[in-house]
């Protein structure tokens, strides 16, 4: 989506392609389906949020693309960071080139610009801003790839066994999928675990500077008791919606996925609420989703992909995803089938093995060809090492942005090395003529809480 269109493409073609991109994740339909193109298979579930009882289910365990429902997990991890004091509502969220380049719907913040965490939350809830989602992911995870792994680990800890996240916004990715049941679980978890922030989901608009930005959830104010949560749309997913309802002590969380239009999706949700709210219990059975902020898998994954304060450990034996699986509770072991194409019914999904959740995220087993003459000679400063080249490059970008003056004359690069049959990537800054110069730079970096060490190339 980010590739520029060639100048020789006719204007009309460029226009309609642009319109198609803008429609992604916004819930805007682009005309009727073409002949022979079936609508996505619907999936839905209604859960009594007091007791956890399933009141209605249709293809609830069938694999579907989440689209912008993905942002529910991005927001969950944002609320978690807020509750732990890692960030505040006034913390600035800086937009990298990657975040600024996300396709609409977006706020349109330029590279290097920033907004507050609270503005990022509101933009994700109402406008479903893809650029804000990526910027928040990079703030909390160091890189969007790291954050996606954190999202999947958190999903497991919440009991979402059939969900894998690859990005923070929900734009198309064939490796990112979920089920209606898992989305209901996440909706309940948001309400139970972070009631102090849950009111954001009820906002129908917010002010961004002098501009009022309206939301996409048209059931707010239309159906009594609806207080959120999130809409979503891509062409592959169809129109999705998670709704939370609370009326006279009765509470529901309902999910509709794969709608053929925004209106039909909303009407189906309204029908389900009307039919099943009277059947919900007024008596609470207590918390339905266990709150586990210290789950072992999530912590260990964070340590692998997010070096502690940027501390590099390239020569220590790395912890692998497989090792995490072995050290944590037993997890499903069957390989999942990919999501079915639009118009085809997906089979009930197999359980997702934890290690396979990250298939495709591991680096190539072949060392990239390196022209050693192009690498900096002399002394270098190393700031990180990772089994992912993308993560190593993200560490370089983050360090360079945080320490521009210190590294003004240095050049960042990655260099692969192989250990135990696995390829890893060192993140280094070169251009220091002497050991003293490298040590001086590293000392200055440590004063900014960036761990590093100097080494001769």
From TrEMBL:
Family under the similarity heading: Belongs to the peptidase S11 family.
Alphabetically sorted, this entry's keywords are: Cell shape, Cell wall biogenesis/degradation, Hydrolase, Peptidoglycan synthesis, Signal
Q: Does the keyword Cell wall biogenesis/degradation apply?
A: yes
Q: Does the keyword Signal apply?
A: yes
Task: Report the residue ranges that make up the SPOR domain in this protein.
Answer: 373-457
Q: Which domain of life is it from?
A: Bacteria
- Supply the InterPro entries for this chain: Beta-lactam/transpept-like, Peptidase_S11, Peptidase_S11_N, SPOR-like_dom, SPOR-like_sf
The protein's name: SPOR domain-containing protein
Q: Name one Pfam family in it.
A: SPOR
